[in-house]
Amino acid sequence: MQGDMTVYLDCAATTPLDPRVTDEVLRHMGPDFANAGSRTHDFGQRARRAVEAARDRVAAVVAANRGDVYFTSGATESNNLALLGLEPEGRRTNRRHVVSTRIEHNAVLEPLEELRRRGFDVTLVPPTAGGFVDPAALRAACRDDTLLVSVMHVNNETGVIQPIDEIAARLVDHPAYFHTDAAQSFGKLIAPLRNPRLDLISISGHKIHAPAGIGALIARRRQNGARPPLAPLTFGGGQERGLRPGTLPLPLIAGLGKAAELALAESDQRAAANQAFRHRLLTALAPLNPQFNGDQSRTIPNIINLSFPNVDAEEVMESLADLIAISNGSACTSQSLTCSHVLTAMHFPPPRADGAVRLSWCSLTPEVDWEQVVIRLTTGATGRGTPRPVP
């Protein structure tokens, strides 16, 4: 059993709730509860104002307008809405080609596969060995009938930042809609997501200290005033201007709004704290000569993916079980024992990919006993009191 001193280093999977966000959520679960769709009394009107305030807070992070924000259950739903929601437009205009990458989250890859089953042509551009996509290669994959380009902003396994500004610049002369899954970057990397060429942005609250189960799709208006012509995937109720019907979860929305506000206000301090934590981590692990998976000059400050030579990821996680809680990749696919599709696309040999672990943290993460971590990995002792073979 893990001890009370175990430090959680899986913030790329989900972050702890910020106490200030918790207060906001509980207030709207208690005294300020109401259905934001009830317009006939003060309770409902206050709830509606809280929803719109949260919409403003989310929009401010990416320099969008209130009306550009559609609340969803998270980035997975937002990705589905962005990709599958454009299907009718693709059929109407006879543009049935989509460009994306081989390193996307399954929440993008699976909707793309569904589009393929529905008769669309999908091109997946491979990454470089450093884990990022070449903007020139991605632009070269676009055709006259390309409807949509979808590129994640930060890879959830490696932490490598994709060059979405450069991609946006290369798409200036192309009418394709540009979507990014920003689950790992929203509220952390501010400037790139403010690029007006980005038409669609998917976000999740639980990556920025808000509750799980809430997110948003930001559908930005173009210079001609038109938003991406999305069609709803579900029907009934008319909420979110008919694009995502269902009673709005006021406490979750208020929590996301508060988390977005804090992320924007504290972005510099949080980035500095994450960078300092990263420096201490790298300094401590240096004697073990880890192999870093992904170009370290292009990674977000709070995610590292690495492999220890001749040591399997399961062994690493077992060794450190009562010291640090880490992942061997994406939490959404951790039930599958197959090799990471991201590291495979980067052409890493199976032993290195099989040994890969992801460490991710946030500004709320306490300090780790790195000396004990190094001892465990050096001596082969496990967090469960038994030795493991030392390579």
Q: Count the beta strands.
A: 12
Report the mean per-residue pLDDT as an integer. 92
Q: Which fold name fills CATH's third level, the topology of the largest domain?
A: Aspartate Aminotransferase, domain 2
Helix fraction by DSSP (H/I, runs of at least 4) = 25-40%
The structure class reads alpha/beta
CATH superfamily of the largest domain: Type I PLP-dependent aspartate aminotransferase-like (Major domain)
Shape: globular
Work out the strand percent: 5-15%
CATH architecture of the largest domain: 3-Layer(aba) Sandwich
One letter per element, helices H and strands E, the order comes to: EHHEHHEHEHEHEEEHHEEHEHHEH
Count of alpha and pi helical runs: 13
Please give a structural write-up.
This protein has two domains: 124 residues, Alpha-Beta Complex (Aspartate Aminotransferase, domain 1); 247 residues, Aspartate Aminotransferase, domain 2, CATH 3.40.640.10. The protein starts with 6 loop residues before the first strand and ends in a 12-residue tail after the last helix. Helix 5 links the parallel strand 3 and strand 4. The chain contains 13 helices and twelve strands. It has 391 residues and is α/β, with parallel strands linked by helices. The C terminus is likely disordered.
